[in-house]
Write a structure and sequence with these properties.
4 strands; 4-stranded mixed sheet; alpha/beta; 118 residues; 5 helices
């Protein structure tokens, strides 16, 4: 990938992360779902949340790849490799921030209630 595109991508991911932290204000006990982890980190911005979030043990990463290197790099992050695994083990979903779709699982009740009240 072109160096300029890599710089732009990294800047974009950083901004999305900052917006997520500012809007969601996750706490130490907040659970977070990162939809779309990357097994191969071909660029610095890959798996940005796992690299910089201060409480990696609160992250569940969801993806379609087998997480061999991912689990070596981020041993504290819980990982699911299929949607079926996710829905069987975690029923909580909520709000997302940016393209990486960080879901704050602590907001599920408010989200579901607003859907069913209409």
């Amino acid at each position: 990938m072109n160096k300029l595109l890599l710089k732009i991508s990294l800047k974009s991911r950083k901004k999305k992360y900052e917006q997520f932290m500012e809007i969601m204000k996750p706490k130490k006990d907040s659970s977070i779902l990162d939809v779309g982890f990357s097994e191969s980190e071909y660029m610095e911005g890959a798996n940005y949340l796992e690299k910089y979030y201060p409480y990696p043990e609160q992250i569940t990463a969801l993806g379609i790849n087998k997480p061999v290197k991912f689990l070596e790099r981020y041993p504290k992050v819980k990982q699911l490799s299929t949607m079926e695994e996710y829905f069987l083990s975690m029923i909580n979903l909520s709000t997302y921030a940016g393209q990486m779709l960080y879901w704050s699982m602590s907001e599920i009740e408010n989200f579901n209630c607003s859907l069913y009240k209409k």
